[in-house]
Each structure stands twice: as C-alpha cells, then as structure tokens.
C-alpha cells in the first residue's frame, strides 16, 4: 500500500454489453503508468437479472459467467474466462485485483417454500407487528443451470433470517423467518432501525453452521479459481461481525497477505466506524465515509466551508493505517441510493487531499478519470440524463503522487479558504518533493517550507494553473500561489 492507489474501475451504470473485463485488460498499461497499483473490480458472480445485473443482487456465487442461468451465460461484465484473464493481465502489469464480495443476501430463488414468519416494523426491525403466520417465499436455491458443479449445497429457508416478499399473497414487507436459530435477527453493532441486519432479498442466516461452512468453502474455491489479491466486502453493516471475523481469518489462512476493505457506510459517524474496527479487532480497512461526508459538504458550501476542518471527524485523521479514502463511489453518484456526489468544481481539490498526503490509501472513481453519461429515474419518478465529467486535473495528480509526493509532511492549515502542505521528498532522490496549495475561495498564496535540501531550486506548477516560477530560498522556504477554486502542485523544475 506504500504510495499505492486503488481504482474502482466501474460505476452503477457501467457497460451492459459484457465488455468490461476485456476493456479493463486493454487499459491495464495506462493505469500502471498512472501509478494505479490495485483495481477494485465489480461483483463477478451471477445476479438475479443475469447479464443486466450489477452483481449486488447476488444469485449464484459459483457462477462467474460460466453457466446459462437467469437468462444468460455471461454476466454484465463478461464471461468467466474473460474475468480470469483480466485478473492475470492486471497482475502482469503490477496491479493487484480486489474482488467485490457480496455475502449479506441472495436473490432470485429457484423455488418457493412455505415459511413461518413474523412481520416487522420497517423502521424498528425489533418490533413484530404480527403474530406468527405462514407465507410462500423464494427461499430455495437449487441452481439448475449449474447441475451441482463446484458445490451441491442447496439453500433453503433454514439458510435465511428474513425475506421481503410473500409470493403467495404478492405482498411486500419485511418478514422475520421463525427458525431454530432464534426469534429475530442476528446481532450487529448499528442500532439504526432497531437492528439493521436485514437489508434486502433473502437475508443470509449466519447462525447456521452449514451456511458458514458453505461460504468458507466457496471462498476457498473462489480464491483458487480467480487468484485475486484482496477483497472488498459489501454491506458489512448488515452482517454479523462474528462471521466477518471468521471469514477473514479463513481467507487469510489461505492467503496470508490478503488485503481486505469493508463497506461500512456511516457518513459523519466516525465513532461507529471506530466501534466496528474495535469489534473486528482491526482485521480490515474501511472506506472513510466520514471524510466523504466532509468533502461533499465542502463542495456544496463553497467558500463558506472552513477548509482547516476538512479532516475533522475522519477515519484517516484518527486511524490512517485502516482508512481507504475516496471521493465518490457507485452508491453516492447521482440518482443512486446514497446520492451525495462531490461537485465537479471541487474534485481536483478533493483528489489532492487524498492523493498527495502521507496518510490513507486513496481510491479513484472511474468516471473521474474517464467521464460518464447515463439515464435513470430519480426519486421523484422522472427520468434524468446525467453527465459526470472527468476531473481534468486527476491524471496530473496521479502522476504527481507517483513521482513527487514522498517524505516528511508539513501542514499549513491556517486559513479557512486557503490551505497547503509540503512533502520534503525521498532522501535518495533530490528530484522528489512538492508543495501543494488549494483554495475554495479567491486566489491564494502561502509562505511554506519544503526543506533546506531544496534551497536554490526552482519550482513550477505541475498542473499548469500558475505560469510563474518559484525560487526556494537558502532556508528552504518560498511563497507559493494558487488560483481561486483550484489547486496547484509545485515541483522541482527538472
């Protein structure tokens, strides 16, 4: 992870033509050249909508685009062979593969079963609003298209703790399955909605030993088949921490250096992220949802946002070794469930804050490097066409991280609109080091120290926003400038 960069190479509306794996292969050389060291891949397993599924509505964990199920052989992103080849090509270019793993739920059951349930209050899942009664639920998964290849495990109602659909009466709701594992949900640390174990579809019952064993057997098969380097665990807020610990330990018994990052989305709630880290004993990194919350607020408030507080309440500020910092993802982009996109004008400033500082493991979002256009319905039911422009400065910021952002860091967070920092560089490479200055208001300047080792050198704005050069004095200090609403990265003139 030292000076590494992760990239989420997809978004919610990415390719529906099955070409993503092949496209990513073709882009591997460019990503490596930009300094990307890891790629977060979308879920590779077959979802309930077959080739139209994004992969988060998981159906068959063992189908990586190999079997004719849910109306297609390939997934939205391609075939199994293309997926495996994609990972191999990434690794040949020095890029590790992060597999997106969805273990909270399953959807698209093959058969219905009669199931005893209690209906619960959606806003307080600990409150039953009915007596015990019977419904017809799609809780039986036989995977007829796979014919027991790789696993003959049959999922049934004893494998799930809840469902959201009564097929017999064609009614939706949240139904707690009454089984031998307890009258209610599994224990999770978040008290939102009383208990947020249930999220969607058929919620997996991890109090069932057979289920835990099957998931661990699958994890071994998946790792041996795909040979990925790390895992992004989806929706861990809704999964028993005890099983998450068990699963991570199992996977690391197979691959000791397995990198793991969890999605525990709790914007502005650092204590909850810290609590999860405590409960799981620091086994995994977490996406810094608290920092994203600050970046979004800063992009909305403009010059009224106090930039000296941009890292306040963030995970990277308190537990940097476990913080994966990000600007946006597929859930926060426009028209999605957790919609809170950082405004385009602020993207360059935000990326400078996560790419050019010493703490945190930054993650780049696909549209910010490539742009994207798509259509979908908003929460009001109307259809919108969305254009997500690329961040013009991002390529330069990526290269600046790769070439210059090393060494001792000095912070100058002393003005509400204009902040900066310097990196002194590597001791064995006097061409490294930089000074970064950004403003969310008017044009700014700041007197900053880059270190005596740079005395007498000439620096220029690597991003090209300021045309003047800067000369470092005999003590290693200089006055650096930036444009309003912009960022400048000052590096040595070679």
Could you please describe the fold and organization of this structure?
This protein is of the alpha/beta class and 494 residues long. The protein has helices spanning 20-34, 80-92, 209-226, 241-254, 270-279, 289-301, 315-318, 344-355, 366-370, 394-403, and strands at 6-8, 38-40, 46-47, 58-60, 96-101, 105-106, 111-121, 124-128, 133-140, 160-166, 171-177, 202-204, 230-233, 259-262, 285-287, 323-326, 361-365, 372-377, 383-388, 409-412, 418-423, 434-439, 444-449, 458-461, 470-471, 477-482, 486-492. Helix 4 (241-254) links the parallel strand 13 (230-233) and strand 14. Helix 1 runs parallel beside helix 2 (80-92), helix 3 runs parallel beside helix 4 and helix 8 (344-355) packs parallel to helix 10 (394-403).
Task: Give me a quick take on this structure.
This protein has 494 residues and is α/β, with parallel strands linked by helices. The chain has helices spanning 20-34, 80-92, 209-226, 241-254, 270-279, 289-301, 315-318, 344-355, 366-370, 394-403; strands spanning 6-8, 38-40, 46-47, 58-60, 96-101, 105-106, 111-121, 124-128, 133-140, 160-166, 171-177, 202-204, 230-233, 259-262, 285-287, 323-326, 361-365, 372-377, 383-388, 409-412, 418-423, 434-439, 444-449, 458-461, 470-471, 477-482, 486-492.
The pLDDT mean sits at: 96
Flag low-confidence runs: none
Overall strand count: 27
Assembly classification: single chain
Task: Provide tags for this entry.
eight-stranded parallel β-barrel; 27 strands; 494 residues; 27% strand; alpha/beta; 23% helix; single chain; seven-stranded antiparallel beta sheet; 10 helices
């Amino acid at each position: 992870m030292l000076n590494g960069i992760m990239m989420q190479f997809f978004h919610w509306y990415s390719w529906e033509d099955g070409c993503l794996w092949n496209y990513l292969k073709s882009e591997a050389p460019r990503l490596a050249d930009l300094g990307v060291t890891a790629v977060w891949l979308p879920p590779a397993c077959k979802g309930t909508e077959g080739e139209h599924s994004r992969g988060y509505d998981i159906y068959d964990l063992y189908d990586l685009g190999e079997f004719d199920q849910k109306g297609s052989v390939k997934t939205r992103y391609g075939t199994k062979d293309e997926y495996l080849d994609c990972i191999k090509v990434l690794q040949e270019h020095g890029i590790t593969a992060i597999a997106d793993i969805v273990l909270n739920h399953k959807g698209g059951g093959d058969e219905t079963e009669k199931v005893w349930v209690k209906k619960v209050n959606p806003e307080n899942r600990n409150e039953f609003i009915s007596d015990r009664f019977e419904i017809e639920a799609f809780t039986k998964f036989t995977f007829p298209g796979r014919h027991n290849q790789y696993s003959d495990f049959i999922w049934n109602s004893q494998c799930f703790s809840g469902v959201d659909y009564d097929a017999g009466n064609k009614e939706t709701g949240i139904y707690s399955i009454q089984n031998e594992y307890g009258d209610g949900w599994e224990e999770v640390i978040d008290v939102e909605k009383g208990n947020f174990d249930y999220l969607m579809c058929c919620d997996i019952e991890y109090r069932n030993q057979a289920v835990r064993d099957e998931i661990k057997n699958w994890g071994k098969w998946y790792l041996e088949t795909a040979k990925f380097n790390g895992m992004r665990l989806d929706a861990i807020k809704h999964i028993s921490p005890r099983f998450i610990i068990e699963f991570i330990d199992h996977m690391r018994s197979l691959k000791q250096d397995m990198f793991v990052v969890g999605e525990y989305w709790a914007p502005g709630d650092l204590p909850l992220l810290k609590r999860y880290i405590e409960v799981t004993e620091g086994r995994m990194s977490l996406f810094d949802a608290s920092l994203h919350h600050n970046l979004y607020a800063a992009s909305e408030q403009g010059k009224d946002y106090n930039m000296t507080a941009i890292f306040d309440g963030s995970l990277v500020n308190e537990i940097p070794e476990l913080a994966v910092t990000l600007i946006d993802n597929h859930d926060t982009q426009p028209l999605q469930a957790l919609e809170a996109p950082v405004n385009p004008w602020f993207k360059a400033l935000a990326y400078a804050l996560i790419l050019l500082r010493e703490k945190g493991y930054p993650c780049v979002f696909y549209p910010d490097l490539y742009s994207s256009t798509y259509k979908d319905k908003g929460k009001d039911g109307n259809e919108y066409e969305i254009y997500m422009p690329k961040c013009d400065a991002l390529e330069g910021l990526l290269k600046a991280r790769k070439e210059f952002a090393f060494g001792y860091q000095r912070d100058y967070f002393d003005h509400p609109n204009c902040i900066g920092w310097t990196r002194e560089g590597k001791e064995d490479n006097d061409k490294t080091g930089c000074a970064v200055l950004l403003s969310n208001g008017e044009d700014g300047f700041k007197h900053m120290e880059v270190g005596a080792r740079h005395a007498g050198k000439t620096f220029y704005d690597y991003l090209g926003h300021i045309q003047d050069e800067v000369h470092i004095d005999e003590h290693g200090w200089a006055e650096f400038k930036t444009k309003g609403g912009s960022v400048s990265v000052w590096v040595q003139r070679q």
